[in-house]
Amino acid sequence: MPKESLREKLNHDNELDLSLNNLETVPVKDLAALPKATHLDLSNNLLTALPDSFCSLIHLVKLDLSKNALTELPRLFGQLENLQHLDLLGNQLKTLPRSFCQLKKLKWLDLKDNPLEEGLKKNAGNCLNEIECKKCATRILMYMTDLDGQLELQSQAKKKKQEEAEAKQKDREEREKQKKRQEKKAEKERRRREHEARRAQELLAQNGDTSDEEITAAREKLKYNAGLKRRDKGQGSRNCFLIVLFSFLALFGALLVAIDFHCISSAKDEMCASYWQPTRAAVISSWELSKISALNFYANYIEKFFSPKT
């Protein structure tokens, strides 16, 4: 429908009457270009459904969709947030979209002559006059709000149940992986033992004897050789540690000798006079005292013990 003809139908009260036009589709694009058309009459047409884009006509305040063949409303119908008056008389509606509870400004609603499900039918009432239609709007909004809350709880419960199922599945998969890793490890150990057994048999076959006793002895020998290898490896680690320790002590001793030589050559060095010379004197004094104590101990006990008795 041309936009010019729509403008011609728009009256001074911002009412756009498109009733009785045998419309099968709604010219949403043209209607969106007329934001002043806050009252829209689409009654007595051949509409069976509204496009999703219809929900973009948020300027609508009054909407008449009566006496069409609508079987459902768009899922986002609740986006028509400014809607106050809605006439759905004489359609084929059984349910309303979940978003219907978002029509907080809705004051008037007519749902007569629709094959509504029991809950909607009970709350819609007869709507035979203005007061009943206003009550219908209030009751239906309350009903749809409660229904939305119940559906949300069901959705959360379903989501939680799904998450628990996924967690259990993940746990089962992890246990299965662990089991496979253990089986793989056990299989590897079995192949290793079989390989050792074959090597033992080959060694005995080379000597021309394959008795059970010698096979057992060969296996024990293999284990003993493996133990020797591990022990040699540990001994090598200890030897490396001793070499490193000895090198450190030798380096430390060389450092002390170098410091002593420097301080003897440079008697006026303040660091030597303040730290090294007193330390050196204390060490020499301790060494002399230790030597005297050792000589006295030797004279009083060792030499006396081993000297011939007269």
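^ that was protein a. below is b, sequence first then the tokens
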Amino acid sequence: MGDDWFLHCHFWKERGDKTKPPNDSFSASPPLKSLIFLCMQNPSENKRKMSFVFFPSFFLVQFWSHSLRFAQKNSTHIPKVDEDEVYWRQEKDDEELEWTHKSTPVILQFVQCFTNAMVGQRSTIGGLFTRSNNKRTKKFSDYPLSPLQEQRLQKLHERLQMPFDETSTDHQEALRALWNAAFPNVFLKGLISEQWKEMGWQGSNPSTDFRGCGFISLENLLFFARTYPASFRRLLFKEDGMRATWEYPFAAAGINVTFMLIQMLDLSSAKPRCLPGINFVKLLEEDEAAFDVLYCIAFEMMDAQWLAMRASYMEFNEVLQATRTQLERELSLEDIHQMQDLPAYNLLYN
């Protein structure tokens, strides 16, 4: 429709006829005429809004119009066409004109309300959704934390705030420990070496990859390697299933999994405001290493999704999103009281 429709409306206004469109224009029902009339009052100002709502408004007002006509047709006697066709057409025109004059204010209010609902800053529909979301947020924000939950959540927040420091001895040792867990029989030439690319780092210096998530992403990988070594090596060396020609880089994927979990669990807030995050806090009370264990489960789920989708490198984000969706569902189950209750937990031992 677009600009041509507005040119029709402008031409109609320039002719000075506000009740009848030009012969070369489309035929409009009375409600539709009212809709066009609203646009004509200020074409340049209303063009954007009216083009956005014209289609849904068109169908609504057309339905309204036909419904009224049907009711009038069944409740009022109309002479047959073959008896007096001229009289019938005149009555119909007079009826439409009278209906238009009487209903124009109502239709204009209806269209304006619909426009505001679709594009207004504080629409009625938007207000309803806002109030609903506010109630939901309030419900998920007012839950109390036990002293142990608060303590462990605070400790996790502190871990999230720690950046990777390549000058720190502890961080350097953690990086070397990760290499030894992955390649126990291969001597590491240095913390900056082309060898790191074999693990799936983007370059010869892994410290540059930690800038997105900080030291906790290295802690997650190291926990995975030490706690579930068989699972860790199976994913590192892509031992399961039919692998793609362009596989995802293991270490870089691990950092993405950490970042995904932080977002999914709403850990950037003082306390999670989403159901998966709230249930995670309960798991954290049962197991202080819940975040690290969940990381290992999520990594396994991501690899399983990769194989199921027969994905390649360019589809990694889609695989990660599918992993997040599945993990959110599992963390929203009512009967999850410990990490072992998650259905995907068994992937760590397959």
